[in-house]
Structures
1.
Amino acid sequence: MPNMKNAKKAVKTIEKKRIINNNYKASMKTAIKNVERAVASKDKKAAEEALKVAIVRIDKAAANKVVTANFKARQKSRLTTKVNEMK
């Protein structure tokens, strides 16, 4: 446990930020899984809709420094390729 006043405040701040970051990350992961499920079920329309949502969620997570820019680019590229390769 922290003893100094500023360290106690930092613990509170860090905990709030951790919760917010976890929400961004969980939301992003769910959106990515939804795209992959739609691709697996061969539903192109649903996959395209899920891809739009996933791209927004990935961008928001990257904007808030939850994931890196390289991760953002890689995920968007992989998901877009999967959707575009569907018949």
2.
Amino acid sequence: MIYILLKYLKYHWIYSLILGYFGIAIGLYLFTDIHILVPCLWKAVSGYDCPGCGLTTALIALLRLEFREAWLENPLIYMLVPLLTSLILRDFATFWRKELVEE
């Protein structure tokens, strides 16, 4: 399974880059309070929050099991996390089945 997971991440290298960056950035923020996340371009240009503003903060709150704080940051997190998780798992399952057929 580990072999297929590594092959999946190599095949979908963009997932690896995004997961690696966010994993390191969120880990640094959680454990050392160092903030290296990219600021919202929309908010920097216009001064107004975009619909995605607060999603990273909401995800960090979810990781800390602070459900109310996550909701207050951006309620959209409760739709996006299950949706993205199911999409990635479905894509991985398809990749896995394809790998099993090729072997």
